[in-house]
Amino acid sequence: MKNLMARNKISALFDANSFVEIGALIKSKSTAFSLSSEDTLTDGVVCGYGTVGGKLVYACAQDESIMNGALGEMHTRKIIKTYDEAKKVGAPVVMFLCTTGVRLEEGVDTLEWYGKLYKTMAKAKGVVPQITIVCGKAQGGVAILCGMSDFVFMDSKNAKVFLASTNTMEDKNAKLDDIQTSSVHASKSGLAQFAGDEAYITAHVKELISIIPSNYLDSNYVECSDDLNRVDASLNNFDFVTQDVTKIITSIADNNKYIAISEEFGKSVTTGFIKLNGATIGVIANADKGICIEGIKKSNKILQFCKSFNLPILTLVNVTHFASSIDSEQNGIIEQFSEFVLKVATAEIPKVSVILNDAFGTPYVIMNSGHIGADVVYAWPTANISLMPTDSAIKIMYSEELASGTVSQEKLNELVQEYNAQNSGVNGVASRGYIDDIIEPGATRKRLIAAFEMLYTKGYNKR
Prior knowledge:
By secondary structure, the chain is of the alpha/beta class. It has helices at 4-13, 73-89, 109-124, 143-148, 182-187, 198-211, 245-252, 293-308, 326-330, 333-346, 361-366, 390-397, 399-404, 409-424, 426-431, 444-454; strands at 20-22, 45-52, 55-62, 93-97, 130-134, 137-139, 151-155, 160-162, 194-196, 259-261, 269-276, 279-286, 290-291, 313-319, 321-322, 351-360, 376-379, 384-386, 437-438. Helix 2 packs parallel to helix 3 (109-124) and helix 8 packs parallel to helix 10 (333-346).
């Protein structure tokens, strides 16, 4: 039975007996060339709707068993209709890609269907979440569909995504596996947020759908079963050298659950989603003290998703510098950081920041600081907020005295302490109004819940 693979993928994702197929009897209109001899029932794509974890979801699943899953007129019309119906009722769209591209038999008309599909996805952007699962090939123009999606999952064994084949490249030593595999797109290009086998993909798509809103008007609130006032005393002795920031994130989250996004890409930052008192919150947290270009790219992506779907954002700050290099400077690191600043400064969603440890210079400013628009800024007692490390500042200001030996080490130590008290110490910074409160680390969860609840009606003053 043709389309069995496509239907099996849908059955694995959707709740039992919930999927309703759309357009099952549609066939290709074209009989040109080799198409006249093929049975094109469903026209190579299974479309419909059902529930995933009880939430309404629409899906399109290509199948290579019919014309290699290639896009044609009726095939594309079915996908567009599915998108239109999903937008009408405010439901996410999951697209399973497994295609060799377009049907050569339909000639130049296929460009029309590429364009219409691109336009449909563009209009759905920020209206309903778009999730793409690459099960096989997604090459050339089809690869663009991945880049237009909000989240991309790649089958670690079978998925192959590239824009142009290596035989079109100047580098004759280039191999397809240098540009098309899930490992490339999960760790280097950042196109894929998740990569794994079929079981992994199914489980993580279900998990993602459970926590993100169904549309831009959906709060996706669920009743919280966790203790709102839960305190984690272990955070009071958090070791920033040996412990990972994800421990903090899981500690504060409802039921200690954190869904990380793009874990293998831009590891200087961790991004993802948590629930706080049943509300979905986007998270951006420094995992290293230097932010790399890949880290800020994925921060831009989740921040844009949160802006589009009205999700609050939480930043956990521990940063001292930009992890820049000649390559990153040439590849647009300045533009990426500038884009992040623009997004933070203009986002009208609730924004809360917690300064955990070091927060130096411009990197600190752009990480959703109060200076560019955070609604609430908390700091742990371990916070060290400064223009730069205190020792470095003193050495610059007293460079001549140090060079001539006219300042003693005792005096230098006094200057460091004085500068730190005035400019770096958390109490000194609080006295300037740059942070709203110094909080007990163990009580971070309940303080964040209170802050986000207070910000729930943010934007009321626009009326």
